[in-house]
Amino acid sequence: MIEDLKHLRNKIDAIDDELLELINTRAQLAQEVGRQKSGAVYRPERESQIFTRLQQHNHGPLSQIQIQQLFTEIISACRALEDPFTVAYLGPEGTFSEEAVNKRFGKAVNALPSRSIDEVFRQVESGTANFGVIPVENSTEGAVGRTMDLLLQTPLLICGELELAIHQCLMAKQVDLSKIRKIYSHPQSFAQCHSWLIENLHHLQGIECINAASNADAARLAANDEHAAAIASKKAAEVFGLMLCACNIQDNSNNTTRFLIIGSQAVAPSGRDKTSLVMATSNRPGAVHELLAPLARHQVSMTRLESRPSRANLWDYVFFVDIEGHQQDENVALALQSLRHNATFFKLLGSYPLA
Ligand SMILES: C=C(O[C@@H]1C=C(C(=O)O)C=C[C@H]1O)C(=O)O
After folding, report:
1. Is 105 part of the annotated catalytic residue set?
2. Which residue of 95, 117, 131, 167 is 20 to 30 Å from 215, comparing CA positions?
3. Measured in angstroms, how far is the CA atom of residue 105 from the centroid of ligand 1?
């Protein structure tokens, strides 16, 4: 028995040596690619192709998610050898945005916490950060208005998207909820936990719900107050030394937020892409129908349509549209040409690999 164990462990040691050698050879090749290619280090389309291929080739016992996590870190370390770059996100440390940065870029990036979504855009626009990660919609609460409004104005492009399951927790300096007089959180998080709060805290009269700039900021505030709790991520409880009073308190167990990666580079086709744009049309009967007709004509699927006030004239709207395919695909290029022709305002936000 002991001999069997020893034999198995020797085999594992031999495999680790091989892996070590292979990972370092991979890193050298990535460095060589880095020397040969021009422009940005991060190539979302290439990484998306790598993950698609690995998923097709993976027969377990490791799950697709585990393989994705392991290779995310390998690629992250390889990229950092080429050139470590900076990614701005809605901070402070412990936000879901930070989790989104790690999920997409791995640990080997300079993650730059920013005070607001506006600041994330500014950091990337000014070149302080190479990329930004911003929330764009939540499955329970819908669009993140500020992100949409800033996308309308920015010269930046969308270079990627990712989805993150959002598990909200109630946390405080102590677990005795009867001492709680106020709860801090981000308005989106309060909204995602609305029913839970009513059902579970109804006996606690006079609890004040106070909006914070982010849920990690809420945790920071609760860490300074015996009578306060916060709704935030488990990570935020760790970062700010709080105890978890309740976990998974979001009303919808599938609560998911979609994040966008913004940057200044256009992304080449990966083979599984999406294109985002924003348009306006005149305010007359049938105008929206006519505006979108080229999509059907060129067999392009629309995956999202969202209207927002234009902020120019009263009751004037802009339409955010996501379509399947890359702007370089022939049918998409033809459809975009007609859309541009029909619209009173047209802005392409970018083509990027599907999450
Ligand atoms: C090596 C490259 O640079 C980066 C690192 C990658 C990797 O480690 O596989 C893939 C794409 C790029 O983000 C490349 O462009 O191929």
Report:
1. no
2. 131
3. 11
Q: What is the pLDDT of residues 75-95, one digit of tens each?
A: 999 999 998 899 999 988 999
Atom of ligand 1 nearest to the CA of 79: 5
Residue 302 gets which letter from DSSP? Answer: E
| Best CA proximity match to 135, nearest among 111, 151, 156 | 151
Ligand 1 binding site (Cβ under 6 Å of any ligand atom): 30, 33, 37, 41-43, 46-47, 50, 75, 78-79, 82
With beta carbons less than 8 A apart as the criterion, state whether 156 and 113 touch. Answer: no
In the CATH scheme, what is the homologous superfamily, with its name and number, of domain 39-165?
Periplasmic binding protein-like II (3.40.190.10)
Q: Which atom of ligand 1 is nearest to the CA of 43?
A: 13
Domain ranges of the chain: 39-165, 169-254, 267-353
CB 192 within 8 A of CB 255: yes
Pick the residue whose CA is nearest to atom 2 on ligand 1: 30
The conformation of residue 126, written as its DSSP 8-state character, comes to: T
Looking at the domain that runs over 169-254, which CATH code has it been given?
3.40.190.10
Q: Which structure tokens are listed for 17?
A: 């040596």
39-165 and 169-254: identical CATH topology = yes
Q: Copy the structure tokens of residue 224.
A: 């300074």
Range 267-353 classified under CATH 3.40.50.720: no
> Does 190 participate in catalysis according to the annotation?
no
141-158 pLDDT, tens per residue?
899 999 999 999 999 999
ipTM > 0.90 (yes/no): yes
pTM of the model: 0.93
